[in-house]
Design a protein that fits this description.
Distance between the termini: 47 Å
Low-confidence stretches: 1-40, 644-655
CATH class of the largest domain: Mainly Alpha
Strand order of the largest sheet: 8-9-10-6-11-12
CATH topology of the largest domain: ABC transporter transmembrane region fold
Number of domains: 2
Largest sheet: 6 strands, mixed
Mean pLDDT: 80
Radius of gyration: 35 Å
Strand content: 5-15%
Helix content: 55-70%
Number of strands: 12
Structural class: alpha/beta
Shape: elongated
């Protein structure tokens, strides 16, 4: 895709374009992020090395534990100084709603006792009064429940928006979305992690906190009710009696302990199973996406059967993981369903002796049964939510793995680890200079070494060399996408850089947006866009400028490269880097495009990477890279168009090194 650095943005042009739905969505999105959008991000957490004395199993567990810690390091910022300004308002509001809802539950519990006592006494007046009282209690409870849903889902939505914005900002910064493809780590399918895993990672904790808070308050409230109503139970045993104080409370705790202990034992592998399932789903989606993105090549090669085999293999893995997950759900359902059926009956059986001997009224029995069920539900919260807890655990770890990979790239940008290529400004009139530039892999292996180049304004430089000598890597270093190495890449201050890669990126949306990318579609008038299309030979697309469609699939490779040249004309940059930008064009069309660039951008400095020898005719200078031990080196720097008074920099550099060796 065409990429410009921060200084390469074209000037805004007048336009009568109205706000689009996209811009409205963006404004709403910004509203839920940090108030200070320009704040300085804190440095990434330091790397935590495992204890070398740990066993492999302990090391893996420590890694998983740290992943959860890493997730919370970023996620808790939602409630921090740079977080959402409404975060605490929603959170406190949700807490107050939960407390109020428990109070209404207690009111309905008391109402249960009163209504059954009145029915037992056949007190018609009290029954009528209590019937009238019930409706305000029910309506209030329902409204509080609805308000809880609003507050809870409001926190989830805004938290997801805030954290998504934070992760995507780090992902897109400094080309990290591209650099992730070049480094090792557990960050495969980042788009799935951001879209799905992050959603679950922010939804579930809010549900968990709200559920635990409600369960704790309910359990505390209704344990008091059970203790007060149930009192002590006296049981005759072997000629004597045994008195159990608070027997209903003890029964509720024992019952809940058995149920929760059972689910914990049965579901102990739920986390790993959920994590494996999510990874399998991500891989399956990735395979399908690859087929869609490369549909033309697959169709031309007739690779449907081979692709089907790959899809079936990946989908079979998904089904196996779902089968494992189904087994976990079946076991937990066995416990939860059984617990749900037995729980309402237990208090009735326990209270039956006291009711039969007259020490408890019918209303007290029903109140105790209701309170017991509420306490059991509160204690059994883990039983009902353990699968979701396991799923959250897996999703939070996957998001944290992506964060840690971004941490590593960010630490490298700050100077940690292997060397980094510096980016600065040239001195004098030079448009671009490479000073002792070396380009290496992220493990330190050299790709290009000891490169010294100075390019003057208006020069058109062709970078040549055999395949694998690092030409494209050098271009990525120029763009700032490849950060590893040494030396510096310097540009003339206040000059704009524009790059045309071999594979032209076509964004979604209208053709107008594709032509003006990466600028905004409304930055240029329709007449300007049509003129650019005419110059690059795409007149047949003029009538489709405002149409939306799968342009990435419908345009040919040559049309995409012509469209990229139309972008170049619209943006009118000072420095142009062409990376095999005419490879899909025939020789005649290639000549026309190069002639067009020279004519329309006569003062532009051009750096081209190409294999075709005929491109030399459009350049004033040629530098050649040759693969050597320890990395490719610049071995030739010649003028294709002789220029008086110019001494080749390569010659000066080689003579300088020779003199330095003699002096040593």
């Amino acid at each position: 895709m065409a990429r410009s650095d921060t200084k390469a943005k074209p000037p805004r042009k007048k336009s009568n374009a109205k706000n689009t739905p996209e811009s409205e969505e963006k404004s709403e999105f910004v509203d839920v992020t940090a108030e200070d959008g320009d704040r300085v991000e804190p440095p990434p957490p330091e790397v935590v090395e495992p204890d070398p004395e740990m066993s492999p199993e302990e090391t893996e567990q420590a890694r998983k534990d740290y992943l959860l810690t890493r997730f919370w390091i970023s996620a808790r910022g939602y409630w921090g100084r740079g977080g959402d300004r409404l975060a605490w308002l929603f959170s406190i509001g949700l807490l107050l709603l939960i407390v109020s809802h428990v109070a209404f539950q207690y009111g309905i519990n008391v109402w249960n006792r009163a209504i059954f006592d009145a029915i037992e006494k056949r007190d018609a007046a009290t029954v009528s009064y209590l019937a009238a009282v019930f409706f305000p209690l029910a309506i209030g409870s329902v409204l509080l429940g609805v308000a809880q849903v609003f507050a809870r889902m409001g926190i989830q939505r805004r938290w997801r928006a805030w954290l998504t914005n934070a992760v995507i900002s780090r992902w897109l910064a400094n080309g990290r979305y591209y650099q992730l493809n070049l480094v090792g780590g557990d960050h495969q399918n980042p788009e799935y992690r951001i879209a799905d895993d992050l959603r679950i990672a922010t939804d579930s904790p809010v549900d968990f906190v709200a559920g635990v808070t409600s369960a704790f308050l309910s359990a505390a409230t209704f344990i008091v009710v059970l203790w007060t109503i149930g009192g002590a139970l006296t049981i005759p045993l072997a000629g004597s009696t045994i008195t159990i104080p608070g027997f209903l409370v003890i029964a509720a705790v024992v019952y809940a302990t058995i149920a929760s202990g059972s689910i914990t034992a049965i579901g102990r592998s739920f986390v790993q199973v959920s994590e494996d399932k999510n990874q399998a789903e991500a891989e399956y989606r990735y395979v399908l996406t690859r087929v869609r993105e490369n549909g033309e090549s697959i169709a031309l090669l007739g690779g449907e059967e081979e692709e089907r085999g790959g899809i079936n293999k990946t989908f079979s893995k998904v089904l196996r993981q779902w089968a494992r997950l189904a087994g976990q759900h079946m076991r937990t359902t066995f416990v939860s369903q059984g617990s749900g059926l037995i729980a309402p009956v237990v208090p009735l059986l326990l209270c039956a002796p006291k009711y039969l001997d007259g020490s408890m009224t019918l209303g007290q029995v029903m109140q105790a049964a209701s309170a017991f069920t509420i306490v059991q539900t509160a204690f059994g919260w883990l039983v009902d939510n353990y699968p979701r807890l396991a799923d959250w655990n897996a999703c939070a770890r996957r998001i944290a793995s992506l964060m840690m990979s971004l941490d590593g790239l960010e630490r490298a940008e700050r100077g940690a680890g292997i060397g980094r290529i510096k980016r600065g400004e040239t001195k004098g009139d030079a448009m671009l200079s490479l000073n002792d530039l070396s380009v290496s892999l992220d493990d330190g292996t050299a790709v290009v070494d000891e490169t010294e180049v100075v390019i003057d304004p208006g020069e058109r430089v062709l970078v040549a060399g055999d395949s694998g000598t690092g030409k494209s890597t050098l271009v990525r270093a120029l763009a700032g996408l490849w950060p590893w190495g040494g030396g510096s890449v310097n540009f003339h201050p206040d000059r704009r850089l524009f790059m045309l890669p071999q594979k032209s990126y076509i964004p979604t949306g209208t053709l107008r947006r594709a032509i003006t990318y990466p600028g905004a579609a409304e930055d240029w008038l329709i007449e300007q866009i049509c003129d650019a299309l005419h110059k690059v030979g795409l007149d047949h697309l003029k009538d489709k400028i405002e149409e939306e469609g799968p342009w990435d699939q419908t345009l040919s490779g040559g049309e995409k490269q012509r469209l990229a040249f139309a972008r170049l004309l619209l943006h009118n940059p000072d420095i142009v880097v062409l990376d095999e930008a005419t490879s899909a064009l025939d020789e005649k069309s290639q000549d026309k495009m190069m002639e067009l660039v020279i004519k329309e951008l006569p003062n532009a400095t051009i750096v081209s990477v190409a294999h075709r020898a005929e491109l030399e005719a459009f350049h004033s200078r040629k530098i050649v890279l040759e693969r050597r031990k320890g990395g490719a080196k610049l071995v030739s720097d010649v003028d294709l168009i002789p220029r008086k008074g110019r001494q080749r920099l390569l010659g000066r550099f080689l003579r300088h090194r020779k003199a330095a060796k003699k002096a040593a």
